[in-house]
Write a structure and sequence with these properties.
alpha/beta; 9-stranded mixed β-sheet; 9 strands; 42% helix; 16% strand
């Protein structure tokens, strides 16, 4: 029976990523069941997980649960990863009376604004934003509801005690994508970078990012980095991380300054390129499973009825732009390998990597709106979680039974009725 090394890439999409919560839960439970009955069929090991925005939150919770931790012996297990995912979305949901009321008011205002109602604009850097947050806090809103740092600290209470030495041997990687506002750099916060800085992993021998301008950077993995990945500029001030080093126009010289980050939607949604940067072929995944939140296609038979429909589709397209470009590169390399084989000097470092899509049902994907990505109602989240579990259960069953005949990207990103 084959054991496939997989990497999971979690697309961002606000609270629609509760679907990812369900998918990851089912993947983890299925792996636990299959591991308990070895020899019963093909199986998989999770080598890496990446994410952007809410997808990065899911990736963080999964990684933290699976990573060894000297302060929590339950970490390093599938059960702990599932428990952390459940904790993330339970704490993130609107729970107290004031949170429930606030969530309902925000939803109503977003719907009205989408329909064209005139509202005064506000800035996340203005005094009104601080006043509103303090008022919600005084009325009973939890800090975890109001603040990414508090939420992530709740999800990863012993982050400082992650056992990086054991993690290096386990070889399980996490990445979160964000954009650095002033440089325009595509940046990833990478557990492998942390291992490199601790002397537990050899850096890829490609280029020195501090002396060569490439408009992309790798940073050590941190809770601040994951918070940066989910910082929507219209709602939150840029996430700041001090003492970040950047290259300059002068070769060999760097500048150290405070970095300012916005949501990873503006860079990689989610990071895929970095999943392939292992020096040896055995370090690269056999498959990449993309959990897609933004539908690739919508029904061409339903015309746009107004600006709200246009904005919905703009949001889908923006969320898919970087993902499709990175996946297209993998598909191109796969085609070169089929034609020339890896004996060609230029292709020797590469291997064929199967890309597969896990997506919502057509009815759900086409029925959701851009504004519902901000909805933190527990019923809304739980419904998407349930669908994620159901979709993943069927998907994994077909993956195991069909083997090499199982469909892959790009065909599996579409809904048949859109053809």
């Amino acid at each position: 029976m084959a054991l496939r090394k997989i990497a999971i890439a979690c697309q961002g999409g606000g609270t629609h990523a509760a679907f990812t919560w369900g998918v990851l839960t089912q993947i983890l439970e299925t792996k636990k069941a299959w591991d308990a009955t070895p020899g019963s069929g093909d199986s998989f090991e999770i080598a890496a997980i990446s994410g952007t925005s809410a997808g990065a939150l899911c990736a963080l919770a999964t990684w933290y649960g699976l990573a060894p931790n000297s302060a929590d012996s339950a970490c390093g297990s599938i059960d702990k990863a599932i428990e952390r995912l459940n904790h993330l979305w339970t704490v993130f949901a609107a729970t107290t009376p004031v949170e429930t009321a606030h969530n309902a008011v925000v939803g109503t205002l977003l719907d009205l604004a989408e329909a064209g109602a005139p509202f005064p604009s506000s800035s996340p850097y203005g005094e009104f934003g601080d006043f509103a947050l303090n008022s919600l806090r005084m009325l009973g809103a939890r800090q975890e509801y109001l603040s990414f740092p508090a939420l992530l600290q709740s999800v990863c209470p012993h982050f400082a005690a992650v056992d990086w030495q054991k993690l290096a041997k386990k070889n399980f990687r996490a990445l979160a994508g964000a954009i650095e506002v002033f440089s325009g750099n595509f940046e990833v916060f990478d557990t492998n970078k942390t291992l490199e800085e601790k002397g537990l992993l050899t850096a890829p021998p490609k280029f020195d990012q501090y002396s060569t301008t490439r408009w992309r950077m790798r940073r050590s993995f941190s809770l601040e980095g994951v918070a940066a990945s989910g910082t929507l500029p219209e709602i939150l001030p840029a996430q700041q991380i001090d003492q970040a080093v950047f290259p300059t126009c002068t070769p060999g010289q760097t500048v150290t300054r405070t970095a300012h980050y916005w949501d990873g939607l503006y860079s990689q949604n989610p990071p895929v390129r970095q999943l392939l940067d292992g020096a040896a072929k055995d370090d690269k995944p056999d498959e990449i499973w993309v959990i897609r939140i933004n539908p690739q296609e919508i029904d061409w038979r339903v015309p746009f009825s107004g600006l709200e429909d246009i904005r919905d589709r703009e949001n889908d397209l923006a969320g898919n732009l970087s993902l499709n470009q990175e996946l297209e590169h993998i598909i191109s390399v796969n085609s070169w390998l089929r034609v020339h084989g890896d004996g060609h000097p230029a292709l020797e470092p590469y291997k064929n990597i199967d890309v597969r899509t896990i997506k919502m049902t057509r009815e759900t994907a086409w029925g959701l709106r851009r504004t519902s990505k901000f909805d933190r109602n527990r019923d809304h989240l739980r419904k998407l979680w349930s669908e994620g579990r159901a979709v993943a259960e069927q998907w994994l069953g077909r993956w195991r039974s069909l083997g090499k005949d199982f469909e892959g990207y790009p065909d599996d990103a579409r809904y048949p009725d859109t053809q």
